[in-house]
């Protein structure tokens, strides 16, 4: 890989310089790619570079031009391939590792301000007195109303031990609270868990990171220590945007038969044509120290509900798809995002990289969810009154240049048409702005969590209130075709049943572990 990157770098220099040794670089490119270098197009690029340097209204830095050229080339491929400069690459590594430098708050948006969902325990924000429900209105004196959540979060991050001043509006206080907080390295807990009521547990994964499998194992062990007779487990993957693939494999393996196929991938490279099994070598950072080895045996049979929504993407769809294919869990909620592609980080320099789409992934039954998503077994809206803004969120099928569903290429248009029809029905003539004013963020795992309440009802055999809106048809019509009755709000469903799936046959000796241990999805 290093030689390949080096060759491509040399090719780039030759292209820009437009020197006479282009044939030599063409030979290098042919060796790397198997095809001749398109010299005419590269000459045009060199000409444009020269025109900008000589004719543009002001001087432009060479590095900026070349960086933007690389960025444009990569981003033109699909919505998830991207060039990562020094800052973006650092942030990506922090996200994957489950740590970052900041003040330590979980946040969301409300009325244009940052709402503190929860301060992370023992973080600088926690020690400074930031509380759940606080609204952050200014960062370093700058009003944040109108900023995106990402922009606001970036303002709160920075270098270790640097300081940031936040202005807080609190319901019980007449005057704004101004706090100056020192940034520190924060380790994000991607797994939460608790006993909802005797016999019923809730396990939430907010993102798949390197520590996720170990953190999940600890949380599950603690749940069974608190209540050894759990009768139903809710795995909450709502708004989980994905993360590292090994995390998804490990979470799936915890609930499936030993050595079961979890996911397979297919792309141009040999390393992208892989099948991933529920074995420690595929999910553990140290394969000889399997974090799932000491989990309670009852976990393999406990009835399960998996909660998903339009914000459940990529790695979370791998988990939902695997558990659905094996009929190990009832998938409940709304149709997922539909990102069925794998991105791999290819490091270019010590500080830069390309995040490149290298494969599509498939569920154990060989379903592709690309641009389609996972269709729940039971369609349940976010609230009793409907799905609110969740149904209006952008999904994979809405993104320009998205990959098609190779199992059903003609279905992409139908999927997008169905999504648009759902949105029109849910707006009901009120418009998006009107819905936005009425919608309130749901605190997952709380007493007001409607979908969680329906999951508990499902375990108990009580009526479950289903959505009035039909889901987009599943690819191939194999799984997930249960739709709600538009004439009724309730349906009686049977309690969750124990799994009947048998382990897949063990792989042959030639089916070795993939060379790329850390493919990354987002």
UniProtKB/TrEMBL annotation:
Q: Does the keyword GTP-binding apply?
A: no
What Pfam families does this protein's entry cite?
CtpB_N-like, PDZ_2, Peptidase_S41
E.C. code: 3.4.21.102
Q: Which SMART domains match?
A: PDZ (SM00228), TSPc (SM00245)
Q: Which GO terms describe its biological process?
A: proteolysis; signal transduction
Q: Which region ranges are annotated with the description Disordered?
A: 471-522
- Span of the secretion signal? none
What CDD domains is this protein classified in?
A: cpPDZ_CPP-like, Peptidase_S41_CPP
Q: A Gene Ontology molecular-function term?
A: serine-type endopeptidase activity
InterPro entries recorded? CtpA/B_N, PDZ, Peptidase_S41A, Tail-specific_protease
Q: Which UniProt keywords apply?
A: Hydrolase, Protease, Serine protease
Q: Domain PDZ spans what residues?
A: 89-157
Compositional bias per record (Basic and acidic residues), positions renumbered to this chain = 480-514
Top-level EC class: hydrolase
PANTHER family in the cross-refs: CARBOXY-TERMINAL PROCESSING PROTEASE CTPA (PTHR32060:SF30), TAIL-SPECIFIC PROTEASE (PTHR32060)
For this chain, the family text in UniProt reads: Belongs to the peptidase S41A family.
What name appears for this protein in its UniProt entry?
A: Carboxyl-terminal processing protease
